[in-house]
Design goal:
two-stranded antiparallel sheet, 10 helices, disordered C terminus, 12 strands, alpha/beta, 8-stranded mixed β-sheet
Length: 307
């Protein structure tokens, strides 16, 4: 096929565009993300799973074949945004620059068809000003803070552009974790065991080297509790979602493990008998009444002791 024919085929099918630059064979999840894009896409993918190259293909395809498209790249730091943009620039150059660039630097490229790809710094103040975004890519999303997301999401309001979020879990916290649990996004989760390019021997060594918590996070894409937490998230969720149970029933945590607290039967509506509530179990009286407000009266003192 001629060069022009390859570019036309790539315009119709981004997977063919990916193959033109050596991405062969794409994984099933990559094919779905490229051929069947969702308006709100969230990729929970293991380390070295192909997130960056997939997002780069989507960005280059949008810039080449959708004249006037604005593609923005957001990461936790300017260096990370520049690194992902460098992958996009490499793909663009690898295709032979099918659309010439009017300007090209370390953080942006402006094409003759009016399209732009821009890597943004992680600063919610300085990124404001962009509008009509065709594709907004958020990399290492677990480390992008809420303020940054609040600054960039409105850029999609008028254009109805696509939001492509990707990353590896970093605890059950933040907007990335919440997005993974919401219905707003189409969530794609891929573990390292599903990647044909990573051997079981490598993963076994990594489990030993990293420890269970980090290994589960980096390679099994598990949103685990942050190390050092006093209470497990499952137990806290069970507490806040608890309902009164019938007499004798007990509760289980959300993941099926034994709960931190067992829920007792609903208490009686009758007023309990008054008793001393002092910390040491002794009464402390003043003017004949317990200072702990339990309602007990001061006992009479006799020769033999308290009456």
């Amino acid at each position: 096929m001629s060069r022009l024919g390859r570019h036309l085929a790539g315009g119709l099918d981004p997977v063919k565009l990916a193959r033109n630059i050596g991405m062969e064979p794409p994984d099933p999840w990559q094919i779905r993300v490229l051929r069947d894009p969702a308006p709100r896409e969230l990729l929970v993918i293991h380390r070295q799973g192909g997130k960056s190259v997939t997002a780069s293909v989507a960005a280059v395809h949008a810039a080449l074949f959708d004249p006037g498209a604005l593609v923005l790249v957001v990461s936790p730091s300017q260096r990370q945004s520049a690194e992902l943009f460098r992958t996009m620039l490499t793909l663009y150059r690898g295709l032979g620059r099918p659309v010439s660039a009017e300007a090209e630097n370390a953080l942006s490229v402006f094409l003759e068809n009016g399209s732009r790809i821009v890597a943004l710094p992680s600063d919610p103040v300085t990124v404001r000003g962009f509008s009509s975004v065709k594709l907004l890519i958020v990399d290492e999303a677990a480390f992008v803070d809420d303020e940054m997301m609040a600054a960039v999401r409105p850029m999609l309001a008028v254009s109805h552009g696509r939001l492509l979020v990707m990353g590896t879990p970093y605890g059950r916290r933040g907007w990335f974790y919440e997005a993974s649990q919401s219905r707003e996004f189409r969530v794609t989760k891929v573990t390292a065991a599903e990647c044909p390019r990573i051997t079981p021997e490598f993963l076994a060594a990594e489990r030993i080297a990293l420890g269970e918590w980090k290994y589960q996070q980096e390679y099994e894409c598990i949103f685990g509790d942050v190390q050092g937490r006093l209470f497990a998230s499952a137990d806290l969720e069970a507490m806040f979602n608890a309902r009164w149970l019938p007499e004798g029933a007990t509760a289980t945590s959300l993941d099926g493990s034994p709960p931190l607290l067992r829920i007792a039967a609903k208490p009686s509506t009758e007023k309990p008998a008054k008793r001393c509530t002092s910390f040491d179990g002794r009464h402390a009286f003043n003017d004949g009444q317990c200072m702990w407000l339990c309602g007990a009266e001061q006992p009479r003192i006799t020769a033999g002791g308290a009456a």
